[in-house]
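Annotated sample (chain length 223).
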Amino acid sequence: MSPQSVRLGDICAVTASPSSDLFTDLGPDVDGTPVVTPADITDAQRIDREALRQVPDMTGLERFRLRPGDLVIVRLGGVGKAALVDEAADGWVYHSSCIRIRPDSERVDSVYLAAYLAHPPVVAELLSHVQVGTVPVLTTRSLEGLPVLLPDARRQRIMAEALGEVSLQVDLQLRILRRLSAVSQGLFAQMLGDELPGTTASRAPSAAPERRAPRTRRTSRMS
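Output written by the structure step:
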């Protein structure tokens, strides 16, 4: 049976971003609710928890809470980048630079949909509807109108299991690469030590500037 073509808005609830004014107190050392920003979304469609910031006041943000199975997609700048929300992010909120997609679990599998939205031809289709300006902007309306090829439920589950395992491996490899990069930089700095440009010891003390004798003022002689 061929996949059915449907609009994203017909199988998901697409919620626009909250106002940026609600994030004036957003910070890393704030005691509050974690906020998923574009910077927290990895290439493996996961939420990176290492640098999450929090917002102390949830006034006006209750309707923007996340729950497992939701997708957070970037709407400003790096448009189209998306993350699948897991159990650990239950109750968090998403930033004003993002949009929330809440799939109808009876019609579409969240893992399948996340992989579908990351597929290059689909990303290209999505970007073709982006409002181009100083900063690219993805609107809720454009996202709702995105065509989605929807296989039957059984095939979605099969594809989701396979794609979920691949995504897990991608995330693992990316973490290893980041660690190896940090190790490489550390070794390089250790081997070169103080010879690296910019270190205090590598800068030769500059000679004191030569002092010039003060100029004497010439006076004209009257004859």
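Annotation: The radius of gyration is 27 Å.
Annotation: The first helix runs from residue 8 to 11.
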